[in-house]
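Thread: quick sanity check before group meeting

JM: Hey all, I'm pulling together slides for Thursday and realized we never actually wrote out the predicted structure for the chain we discussed last week. Dropping the sequence here so it's in one place. If anyone has concerns about the input, flag it before I start.
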Amino acid sequence: MNKREIAEYTLDKLMKSGAEGASVGVSQGSTDELNIDGGEFSLMRTLFNSGLSMKAIVGGRKGNAAINRLDRESIDAAIENCIAAAKSGKPDSAERIAPGVGEHSFEDGPQQPDTALLYDRMREYIEDVRKDYPLIMLEQVIAQFDHEESLYMNTNGTVFNSIGGEYGIEAMFSAHDGERSSSFCGFGASMYDLDRRIIDMDLHRNTLEGAVKSLATRSFGDKMVGRVIFTPGCLAGFLSSIIGNFMSDSVIIDGTSPWKNRIGEQVASEGLCVSTIPLDPRIVCGERFSGGFVSENMDYIKDGVLKGFAIGDYASLKTGFARAANQSMNLWVKPGEKSLEEIVSGIGRGLIIDRFSGGDPAQNGDFSGVAKNSFLIENGKITDAVSETMISGNLVELMQSLAAVSRETACDGQSVLPWAAFDGVTISGK
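JM (edit): ok, ran it. Output follows.
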């Protein structure tokens, strides 16, 4: 059976088994992959994948099932498990199948890989790193082309067809000079084509240079509360924690979010605007639909004011708050007016942080961890790499202490983010 036949068969059998409504997702895809380990080619392979997920409502109770095989016997067993799960659950008025929105088709990116060019770019990348950064060891690099065809269908008449292809690169590396070595550094990006050299992609040279500079570190010095600058990659991690702790399904449903009653109120500095932008042309294979709804771009925070939560249909019906227009993490932060150099020039002593290593923030937003691949700012200049330095603060207060946002941004194909400076962070050297 093809994808549509599988979906129609599954929906029909779920309804005949007692469902009052149902939805099905079918996906098939492939990955062409090239690996580098220790600076040398180590693997070339093609992987194939398939999946089927289903949801059924029986007597106001939800059942789910998912499998990675598409033969009829496996599908029948999954249908039986889905119905059984629904019958054993508890009725919940917030559970439903998304309303019908008709049939939509989406196509993104190339549909076939240029494997020869992918190999050439990887070979070129090895040579570029050896030439420009001889102290860098490419511990592992994975370059791949992902292609996926997916179909969503529900009993209310919605049909989503999606087909997409994209290239991706993930690199892990470190610097070595005799007995000295840096900590591991990483770089990742998604793209529709291979027109650029890998080493020249956004911020990649920055991370390579940072690893080399990190061979020699010094202590930040005495503990202080001051200003830090998050690089785009580090900012993405903090924004993800803020969304998870303050805006996601679970914390809105259970009422533990510090922002639970703050829609329409100022929760961040006036200059901060945060959005999710899966439909932006800079985003590679961005989300086109989710949970039976067509995705749209959405503002989370606009000029510091909370505009909405990152919740799905169930949490929306459960709490009465509006459903998020998408479920992606394709983040965008509005650039500022100052250059990164100007922002740095206004800091007497502080830190520019490329990576934060710490546990999940506390329920109230308290965080603490190690600033890695980070550099000291002294008298308005970025100077030496620092040895592992502790930073701590509170996410609620952090959002209200934005000092500046750079006009420069970096795009990795999944988000478009600037550098951002925040006050009130505790910095403690060793």
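AS: nice. The first strand starts at residue 21 and ends at 37. Residues 216-430 form one domain.
JM: adding both to the slides.
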